[in-house]
């Protein structure tokens, strides 16, 4: 008979094998114990409120889910006001709630856009109302017919001089605003992107504050057709009422145009903004936040998978030994199979690398913000390209990693109760929004092409992260470059790893540059065009993202060893050792996964490739005893995981059994539909006796 | 103002560019016009019945969905009886219905298992009742605590000599049957796998027919706790009541054990079966069917994506020209971007290759069946290994391909109304069921290790698909082997492509064999064990699957050109030309995706790798005019696609708009929750006037 306490014993026992101080590791990840404490405090604030209970989510249809989303939104707003919470704490509340709510774009876009693009008077008018939720806003850009291509939006705002108003109009349904979170049911106002038209002249897309629903009774104003666009893939965004809106010659006052940059005077004179790219800052922020989110998501996914695979036992493999103090008759813990470790542990390493990348990217954004506020746009191009490349790469591996964790969990992985299905459904749209992950890679490629030119003409001006381009200055020597690995252990040297990534980036960038020039340059419309090079843009952009991810993870570990740090800030030396293993795994596994890029030009030799694969296996095996400790260090409470299989006590089977007992279908002995459908079928050919 | 007929014009215009006869291509895919006609007839049979309408699926919660599933099941059973349909037609009905129903395992497992493992008397007793749906069955193998490892199932069937009965028992909840489709609400009977115990001796897992619910009132019998296990990931299998069951010393008659192979006499004497592997046939069938299903799924997914991307326009790219007769002011059709073509067209090629593979695999199964029925098990090992390798590979690329199609559709791809979200949710569990896709690859690896031994000792006995192993007989010569490509066009030679796949398979198989021997062989429990080699098993198994997929597709096209065929059976020569392009794309793109495997041992040179990439781009570009024709040839009617964006008329935006208008939330002007949550929030700080 199965020992029903075995699951808990297995997880508890795995914890005893951890080689490092888990709390110290947590402090490293969240950059200090103060942040760890604050995060715990905020998550607990949410966990205590019944409205945020997640137990019945799986059974809500879209109608019920949106109503729940509205209730949760209102409470979220109240908690923010009651506790006077800042943006960071708000983000942590949203992390704890773990679903997209109708109100998210109010703080996430409506307020920031007005703050960024409104005049001081406009900010004074709208922001206090928004901060007190006396109005609720959303951000309406995408249309049914246009997403990426802003300049072809069809919604128009025509200046009506007689009444000093804008007439907002959607000529056809393809001009309908579409996908707008918060618009379907909850918002009272929207910031709307529309083509500004004066006297028949189109001045391009601008933003307008548009009242949508009456503050008296919440009914949409006459002249606006508004609603929910319907359910999303995989049950994702179920509580969000992504909406549509069509405007029929709908009038708003002239001053509802946000006029910090472009302006329109009372008599209809249009003034252009001083610099077209000043609004890029908010894109950089949104993309930087996504990288951090991927760290949080993938760390949750690996937490769930690691714990479940530690307690799940299947087959008795005599040499994948159970521990000495375990009953030898027990089957093997699934996490002890090398195949499982080689799929799972690189994802744990990725999660750690994502934490490091998220921190650096956020620091870069804050630096940029400081620059921009003093009118210095020198760093804008690089930071914008970097945030684009990383957004594309990190959200790709985030979504794929969460799904891989689910598959690692085998049959039970297909249950909703893993907690991972909900997660993938929430992550995967990030591969498309805030810039499609393929289209977005053109940003870094364009940036690097400029850097290639700089490398040729003014090598000292190449920015730090593009310095690898200088490797290729001597083309002959570069084409003969090979990897320095002689002994297998050489793979563990950070400089060897970084050299490989730099070589690959330099080669791909030069190949792209050569191809573009051979096609007559980017401006030659008779030759090859930019879009002919987009496959190569994707390759170099992801290669660059992988390079900086590896670099930043290595640096982050070095920084954690800084002898100048206070005792309290210093990371446990044993934790550092494990971090170094993770960093090696992250670097080497990334090379292995993209091996052709390193081998096809003979940079790696036929001897080095198998030695790389062997090193990856060795590093993976060396992490086995620390796997549970490493995911515990992510510090995700059970409320956040919302997983029957990944809870901290390891009692997976019991929790899965208990969850099934809560299934509404099980309230009845005989199912709905028996009398109507089953019985007539069974009795069609008469009664039988068995 | 946007031309609302443009979508339809675009798709219609694309069709005019097709270079081949679409009907002839359809006949090639379905192996003859008779099959095409029959498939259309059966799909129409389903499409005509209101109960199978898919319009409201997105809004059903699990409770309502299961009731719908039961209603659909009953009607499906009736249609089968009314029209006296065979298994193939039944499969087509299920394809048309496009969801898993509570009744599917009745025909899919309950009946086949009784037919395969029951005595003639047992077949005579149960099958007529089942064929007339006087009983409804399911198949209960997996338990909460055990999936893959059959020998550790915990459910017991203990022989009670006194009463000539079996006592079925689940000692703990980990012994509960779990994931059993049809068990949660609908079935009256289950075929249950349980450990057979006589006088304290455990004779291993055997199958028993177990009454679950009363034929009088459908109530579960006393001694059985039964219910639904809860919702599944991504909203998949929503109409299926995957169930659990726990037995508490539940008695059934001795003759309910299926006794074709093992037997137990009245006085409790157990007799073993003559051959342990005779039951493998049904596994081969299920896996072979899955390959065919992946062809159908991926062809649907590419149909939807290709049509939508043909009508979707975004940005105006001057040299990705619109056709001459189009308005030059129009934006570029998204399908004209090379990046999009290079992601989409390889998936179309994969779908075609899957059709070929599905046919060959099914023929192999039928051949095996004939062999087995005459007691010849000679082919069993190879066919079993092949079906395992292909199931693992094909369901992996099927699920990933459907998801890639969804992502290709950009923002709107995240709408439920693409039809692709439902599809991925239905496909992806196939990566785990019928053998986890990682675990399953061990079958082909084990088979090939035996073939390596045969190649060394009796080379003439190596089976045809493993003949590549003979390449490596001379290890020295083999290690110096290189790819024969000199001119880029050489990549288009099938013999060059096949040689590359053969070389790679031979290398990986020899490396695995060497590693296993170096570890002391598989039986040495002191050395490396089998599970240490499982990563390499996965590599060689997928490599082998890719090799036969490429080979079978090439052969299938050659067969279609057989001069002995009747006019009616012969495929249009222009269709053959396009098939050859698809075959080239399939082979070369597969090499490109796995390039490291071909380059890391220097089989491919640093010159050949870029020429391969260039060839892939060229072949992709050469297929642009035929993309819509190629997916039209899959012959999937709109009812089956159930997609607002992929319908045959191209009217994507209009359909998406119309679908949104059917969203239940939109029936009200003011949303549920306004009075309760939104109004109090808005008014918390008093009334405002704007």
TrEMBL record, chains A, B:
Pathway where it operates: Lipid metabolism; peroxisomal fatty acid beta-oxidation
Compartments, as annotated in UniProt: Peroxisome
Pfam families: ACOX, ACOX_C_alpha1, Acyl-CoA_ox_N
Domain Acyl-coenzyme A oxidase N-terminal: 21-136
Domain Acyl-CoA oxidase C-terminal: 494-683
Alphabetically ordered keywords of this record: FAD, Fatty acid metabolism, Flavoprotein, Lipid metabolism, Oxidoreductase, Peroxisome
Catalytic activity: a 2,3-saturated acyl-CoA + O2 = a (2E)-enoyl-CoA + H2O2
InterPro entries (UniProt xref): ACOX_C_alpha1 (IPR055060), Acyl-CoA_ox_N (IPR029320), Acyl-CoA_Oxase/DH_mid-dom_sf (IPR046373), Acyl-CoA_oxidase (IPR012258), Acyl-CoA_oxidase_C (IPR002655), AcylCo_DH-like_C (IPR036250), AcylCoA_DH/ox_N_sf (IPR037069), AcylCoA_DH/oxidase_NM_dom_sf (IPR009100)
GO cellular component terms listed in the entry, alphabetical order: peroxisome
Domain Acyl-CoA oxidase C-alpha1 positions: 280-449
Similarity annotation: Belongs to the acyl-CoA oxidase family.
Protein name listed in UniProt: Acyl-coenzyme A oxidase
Organism: Mortierella alpina
């Amino acid at each position: 008979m199965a020992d029903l306490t075995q699951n808990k014993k297995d997880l508890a026992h795995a914890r005893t094998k951890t080689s490092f101080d888990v709390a110290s590791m947590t402090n490293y990840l969240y950059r200090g114990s103060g942040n760890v404490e604050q995060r715990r405090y905020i998550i607990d604030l949410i966990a205590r409120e019944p409205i945020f209970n997640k137990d019945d989510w799986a059974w809500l249809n879209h109608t019920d889910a949106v109503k729940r989303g509205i209730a949760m939104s209102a409470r979220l707003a109240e908690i923010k006001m009651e506790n006077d919470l800042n943006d960071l704490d708000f983000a942590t509340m949203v992390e704890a709630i773990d679903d997209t709510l109708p109100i998210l774009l109010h703080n996430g876009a409506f307020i920031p856009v007005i703050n960024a693009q409104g005049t001081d008077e406009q900010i004074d008018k709208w922001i206090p109302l928004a901060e007190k939720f006396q109005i609720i806003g959303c951000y309406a850009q995408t249309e049914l017919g246009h997403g990426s291509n802003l300049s072809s939006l069809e919604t128009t705002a025509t200046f009506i001089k007689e009444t000093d108003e804008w007439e907002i109009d959607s000529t056809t349904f393809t001009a309908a605003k579409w996908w707008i979170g918060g618009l379907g049911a909850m918002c009272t106002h929207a910031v709307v992107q529309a083509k500004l038209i004066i006297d028949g002249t189109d001045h391009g897309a601008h933003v307008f504050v548009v009242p949508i629903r009456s503050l008296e009774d919440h009914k949409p104003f006459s002249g606006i057709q508004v609603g929910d666009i319907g359910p999303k893939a995989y049950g994702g965004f179920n509580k969000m009422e992504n909406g549509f809106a069509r405007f029929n010659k709908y009038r708003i006052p002239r001053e509802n145009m946000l006029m910090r940059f472009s302006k329109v005077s009372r008599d209809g004179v249009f003034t252009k903004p001083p610099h077209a790219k000043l609004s890029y800052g908010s894109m950089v922020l949104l993309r930087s936040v996504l990288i951090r989110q991927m760290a949080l998501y993938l760390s949750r996914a690996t937490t769930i998978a690691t714990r479940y695979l530690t307690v799940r036992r299947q087959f008795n493999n005599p040499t994948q030994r159970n521990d000495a103090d375990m009953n030898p008759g027990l089957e093997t813990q699934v996490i002890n199979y090398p195949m499982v470790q080689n799929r799972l542990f690189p994802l744990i390493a990725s999660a750690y690398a994502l934490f490091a990348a998220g921190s650096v990217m956020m620091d870069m954004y804050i630096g940029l913000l400081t620059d921009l506020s003093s009118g210095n746009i020198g760093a804008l191009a690089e930071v914008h390209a970097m945030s684009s490349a990383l957004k594309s790469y990190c959200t790709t591996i985030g979504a794929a990693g969460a799904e891989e964790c689910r598959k690692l969990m085998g049959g039970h992985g297909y249950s909703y109760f893993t907690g991972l299905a909900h997660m993938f459904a929430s992550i995967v749209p990030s591969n498309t929004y805030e810039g499609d992950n393929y289209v977005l890679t053109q940003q870094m490629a364009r940036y690097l092409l400029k850097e290639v030119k700089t490398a040729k003409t003014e090598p000292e001006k190449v920015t730090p992260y593009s310095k690898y381009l200088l490797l290729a200055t001597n083309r002959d020597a570069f084409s003969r470059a090979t990897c320095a690995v002689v002994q297998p252990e050489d793979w563990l040297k950070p400089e060897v790893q970084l050299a490989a990534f730099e070589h690959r980036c330099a080669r791909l960038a030069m190949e792209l540059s050569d191809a573009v020039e051979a096609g007559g340059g980017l401006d030659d419309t008779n030759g090859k065009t930019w879009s002919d090079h987009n496959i190569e843009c994707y390759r170099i952009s992801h290669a660059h993202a992988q390079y900086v991810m590896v670099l930043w993870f290595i640096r982050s570990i070095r920084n954690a060893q800084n002898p100048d740090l206070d005792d309290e800030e210093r990371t446990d030396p044993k934790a550092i050792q494990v971090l170094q293993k993770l960093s090696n795994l992250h670097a080497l596994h990334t090379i292995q996964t993209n091996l052709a890029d390193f081998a096809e030009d003979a940079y790696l030799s036929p001897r080095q490739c198998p030695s790389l694969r062997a090193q990856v296996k060795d590093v993976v095996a060396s992490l086995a005893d620390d796997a549970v400790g490493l995911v515990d260090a992510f510090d995700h409470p059970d409320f956040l995981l919302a997983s029957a299989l990944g809870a901290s006590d390891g009692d997976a089977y019991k929790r899965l059994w208990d969850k099934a007992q809560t299934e509404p279908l099980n309230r009845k002995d005989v199912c709905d539909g028996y009398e109507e459908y089953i019985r007539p079928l069974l009795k069609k050919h008469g009664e039988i006796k068995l």
